[in-house]
Design a protein that fits this description.
By secondary structure, the chain is α+β, with helices and mostly antiparallel strands. The chain is 64% helix and 12% strand. Strand 3, helix 5 and strand 4 form a beta-alpha-beta unit. Helix 1 runs antiparallel to helix 2.
């Protein structure tokens, strides 16, 4: 009987140990899931802050342009009022010739046309700013899984820049696009193919370290061939119309950072995909206003 009791007690102890191990394993799994959730939440918060910063910057630009438009409108209103007053006063004077009145009338008509032109330009600016904001948000959303140090999206001088590090695109001193980098170019191509109203300028950039290899005589050659290699991939593999593409090399002469430091040189070695309004449409808009 005593032996039976001892055996039962042992079985109970083993069962308790097994249950304890299972509980610890479940607790460890829960802790791991909790930490992953916190990491995902922090990542989402960072992306949210980036988007909020972009939106805030665009709001400030838009507010500035609205202020400029208001100033222009105020000046135009004052000029129209002054001319109208002059016309009214001169109409009462018998010495005013018919030719003079016609001249003033034509001036007023010209002023009205210029007002329409200014308003049209400002509408185009607002439209372009809205498009740039949408492009930035779409590109950042599409490239969300790419390291921020390898791919950067920003608006500079009124156009959208996608800057891709050479570490991601090319092997050192080479100009053939790495297969793993094509996934990034595919994502960019999907966005730009949805916006046929934009042209694409691909610019190659290097650091200031002298470079010679085979047929490549310097950084100019390397930057140009890297730009054409990226343009060729966008065209042949991802369907970007070649009529929209322009490839160019800037060599070491448009640095983002100081070439005196390793980090600065790393930042300068990049390829930029620049999304710009079609210049023929822009010049047509200016010509149509100047001709009136």
């Amino acid at each position: 009987m005593k032996n039976v009791l001892i055996i039962c007690a042992g079985l109970a102890l083993l069962s308790s140990c097994a249950a304890s191990k299972k509980q610890k394993a479940e607790l460890a799994n829960l802790q791991s899931a909790h930490e992953k959730t916190l990491a995902d939440l922090n990542n989402c918060d960072k992306k949210t802050l980036d988007l909020q910063s972009t939106i805030k910057s665009k709001d400030a630009d838009l507010a500035n342009k609205v202020t400029q438009l208001a100033d222009l409108q105020s000046q135009l209103d004052y000029m129209k009022k002054t001319n109208n007053n002059l016309l009214d006063r001169m109409s009462d004077l018998s010495v005013v010739s018919k030719q003079g009145a016609e001249s003033i009338k034509k001036s007023l008509e010209t002023l009205n046309e210029q007002t329409k032109y200014v308003n049209n330009i400002n509408n185009q600016i607002r439209s372009k700013d809205s498009l740039n904001l949408a492009l930035v948000m779409n590109l950042k959303r599409s490239l969300a899984d790419i390291n921020d140090q390898d791919v950067q999206v920003e608006v500079k001088k009124g156009v959208v820049y996608v800057s891709i590090s050479d570490k991601l695109l090319f092997n050192s001193g080479k100009f053939d696009v790495n297969p793993q980098a094509e996934a990034v170019l595919e994502k960019v191509a999907k966005v730009v193919n949805d916006h046929n109203e934009l042209d694409i300028l691909v610019e190659g950039h290097t650091d200031a370290v002298p470079f010679v290899s085979g047929v490549l005589r310097d950084n100019w050659d390397l930057s140009v061939l890297r730009a054409t290699a990226v343009s060729r991939v966008l065209q042949t593999k991802f369907g970007v119309a070649p009529t929209r593409l322009t490839a160019g090399g800037r060599g070491e002469y448009a640095p983002k950072d100081d070439n005196a430091t390793p980090e600065g040189r790393k930042s300068n070695r990049r390829t930029e995909i620049i999304l710009t309004p079609k210049l023929d449409q822009f010049f047509n808009l200016l010509s149509s206003g100047q001709g009136k």
